[in-house]
From TrEMBL:
Gene3D superfamilies: 3.30.300.30, N-terminal domain of ligase-like. GO terms for molecular function: acetate-CoA ligase activity; AMP binding; ATP binding. Pfam families: ACAS_N, AMP-binding, AMP-binding_C. GO terms for cellular component: cytosol. The keyword Zinc does not apply. One of its GO terms (biological process) is acetyl-CoA biosynthetic process from acetate. It comes from Favolaschia claudopus. Keywords: ATP-binding, Ligase, Nucleotide-binding. It catalyses: acetate + ATP + CoA = acetyl-CoA + AMP + diphosphate. This is Acetyl-coenzyme A synthetase. Residues 1-28 are annotated as: Disordered. Residues 96-500 form the AMP-dependent synthetase/ligase domain.
Amino acid sequence: MSKDEQEERSRRVVYPVPSRLTNGDPAPYIGPDIEAYREAYEESVGEGSDEWWAEKARETLFWDRPFKTVRNGSFADGDIAWFLEGGLNATYNCVDRWAFSDPDRLAIIYEPDDPTSSPSPLTYTYAQLLHAVCSLANVLTSSKFRVTKGDTVAIYLPMTPHLLIAALACARIGAVHSIIFAGFSAEAVRERVRDCGSRVVITSDEGVRGGKVVATKRIVDEALGGCGGEDEEGVGVEACLVVRRTGGEVGWVEGRDWWWDEEVKKVPGYCPPTIMSSEDPLFILYTSGSTGKPKGVVHTTGGYLLCAALTLKYVFDVRPGDRFACMADVGWITGHTYILYGPLLNGIATLVFESTPVHPTPARYWETVARHGVTQIYCAPTAVRLLRRLGAKHVAPHDRSSLRVLGSVGEAINPEAWTWYYEEVGRGECAVVDTWWQTETGSIVITPFPGATPMKPGCATVPFFGHEPVILDAESGKELTGNSVEGVLALKTPWPSIARTIWQDHERYLETYMRPYPGLFYTGDGAARDEDGYIWIRGRIDDVINVSGHRLSTSEIESALNEHAGVAETAVIGTEDELTGQAVHAFVTLKPEFVFEPDNEDALVKELGLQVRKVIGPFAAPKQIYVVPDLPKTRSGKIMRRVARKIVAGEGDRLGDLSTMAEPEVLEAIKEKVAQRL
Ligand code: PRX
């Protein structure tokens, strides 16, 4: 069945709200039906919207200083601000509140890569977490690190509780954390550390994931010391704090490097929270855009925290005592909002998962659910597709009765994977929430509500409170009202967790999000509204591609390949992939002077793959690289990616209009090369 046919069919399949949720005790926050959602939603938009947000902000967060102004600014001016006079501290809201009222409550459950190992500690109560955060905060302000309010601190850590503690310690003292996903290469780390100007980096000796050791400290050393070649310069990092994860051998720079476990013993275990203005930056997180340079998306304190807390509460219907398992990495926005901030702001336990869905066996997720009594799981469709392929036999033996909500994020979930998730994992008793959002939105924007929204497989359904998504005609920018329409997705009203700027590049922020359709926030995604008013996300319509839920920019990969001495030109495309959603395919032409043995093409292709790993990281490596005599181009020299895409998709005989193509003869050579490699 084609993708379109699948979607057509699933548009008509509607799954009712599971009775497990509507009959739950207590009843769901929003339920028992779509009418209950509509009523609540209406209050959150339009005239009463400010009052709605203000009330939620007061009841959800603890403010050291109350706000008077709810919102200010506009998309057009790019000056959106929320809860302006308010003062608060993120960690007081995430940790102290619960540590004081209920110190033994579980805050963090650590599920280490090897499930039979027990690195200590495996759990943190809120009181223990407060102690750990405060101690580290005191280390950061000590004379070795001298971190003060407003400084940026780069964090390059694998998925252990230290990653959460490090981010919270920064927030405790008003430092801005910049977490760099621990799969990035030394060059990528260097670029990001340099861009955000961190003097301090927090890392670990090594990391472990899926049984493999990752040399985190070595990567940081390489990043900080310069990588040789033309640029021998370091990046101005003065101090590096190192977590002992494996005890493996590491290089050491005396006077710069310090062990975390030794330093925290030397400082007091309480540190008063620094009161921040609502609009002070909380963190920077790099993401890919449509140019080669990554964007440092900036989120501020009050608005971001409010949306993190509220979306977690309503989208997952969380209750006191819940154990929330988001399987993403804290190095991406999903982890920031739904491993770190969302769960802790709600005072529940968050699971820190260090492993992969298939390590040591494909039962790993479900063993984890059974072991800890996980109540909500949140993962990427790519994991669901992989586990589905490996078979329900890995799911069935494990007790999943604690689960109530199954979340999906990062890319569209195809109806088959959705149905497997719903039926095999959830036994038809759990709500599946297909949540659409972005690094820039900070929190979930379009989503079912578990106790209220009848579900359609593969459909993100309806807006979260306070959001007004609109579908536009891409060309005219005209809003397409009513049902059964398709176009580009934009958001009409500012919400508290919208990114405020791109670090050091506000112009790019305006250019990317605010100018394409003046007065609206442009998402870069295509979307449709079906006959029932449900929103379906169609995926990116810019040069961003999505591989296993990882957001990559084609031009970033092209720049990486272009750095290879032999490469003249490249065209990178994303194609549909059964397992990873999209896959990266790269077309490369070589410089005429580059001496290259045609018999040795495999070695060259391997080298080019390594080049991408070196510049970005292993997760960005192309699935296929084709060395071709020329790229398909228009007469004005524009690369025809559409043509390359069709050839890879096996539609080389249906290339459509080629009248603008400069040299149609190149097509045969390209087709031949693709046929050889696929
Ligand atoms: O294309 C959309 C896709 O992921 C993009 C955002 O990527 P990132 O900033 O890395 O954040 C990922 C986690 C929120 C979006 O522009 N995307 C995200 N969620 C979905 C999705 N596409 C379809 N359905 C989703 N539920």
